[in-house]
């Protein structure tokens, strides 16, 4: 395998540094904290059900963003096609859910 050498006058001086476990540990701890908050909100029992559902949905979206970005490395360069396909899938799934709810509750 050959490596590409840059001359000292080359404008490209950045080297790719491997991502260490520090970010993964921070994201893992943040995910655990979000899970504990969700569990506490439901286990408390005195929380308004509407607030609990909204809180759970917001924390679920945060979990998805964190896990897609850091664990699946979608924050890195060169991952635009998987992101586009996932957004397309979310759009189609959301449309199907909305239309099925509309169809069920049609007067």
Explained architecture:
- The protein has 107 residues and is mainly alpha-helical.
- It has two domains: 21-76; 77-107.
- Helix content is 67%, strand content 0%.
- The chain is built from three helices and no strands.
- The protein has helices at residues 21-44, 49-71, 80-104.
- Helix 1 packs antiparallel against helix 2 (49-71).
- The longest helix is centred in the last third of the chain and has 25 residues, at 80-104.
- 0% of the residues are buried.
- The model has no long low-confidence stretch (mean pLDDT 80).
How do the helices and strands line up, and which of them pair or pack?
Blueprint: H1 21-44, H2 49-71, H3 80-104
Helix pairs in contact: 1-2
How do you describe this structure in short?
With about 110 residues, the chain is mostly helical. It has 3 helices and no strands.
| Outline type | flat
- Count every helix, treating DSSP H or I runs of 4 or more residues as helices: 3
Number of strands: 0
Mean pLDDT: 80
Structural class, from secondary structure content? mainly alpha
* Beta-strand percent range: under 5%
The main β sheet shows up as:
none
**Number of structurally distinct domains:** 2
> End-to-end distance, in Å?
67 Å
Q: State Rg.
A: 21 Å
Succession of helices and strands: HHH
Overall helicity: 55-70%
Residue ranges: pLDDT <50 for 5 or more in a row?
A: none
Family: Belongs to the cytochrome c oxidase bacterial subunit 4 family.
Membrane topology: Multi-pass membrane protein
Keywords: Cell membrane, Membrane, Transmembrane, Transmembrane helix
Subcellular location: Cell membrane
């Amino acid at each position: 395998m050959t490596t590409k050498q840059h001359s000292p006058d080359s404008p490209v001086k950045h080297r790719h540094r491997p991502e260490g476990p520090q970010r993964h540990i921070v994201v893992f701890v943040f995910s655990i904290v979000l899970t504990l908050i969700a569990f506490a909100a439901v286990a408390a029992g005195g929380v308004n059900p509407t607030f609990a559902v909204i809180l759970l949905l917001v924390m679920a979206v945060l979990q998805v963003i964190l896990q897609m970005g850091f664990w699946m490395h979608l924050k890195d360069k060169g991952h635009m096609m998987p992101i586009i396909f996932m957004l397309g899938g979310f759009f189609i799934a959301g449309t199907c859910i909305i239309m099925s709810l509309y169809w069920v509750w049609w007067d």
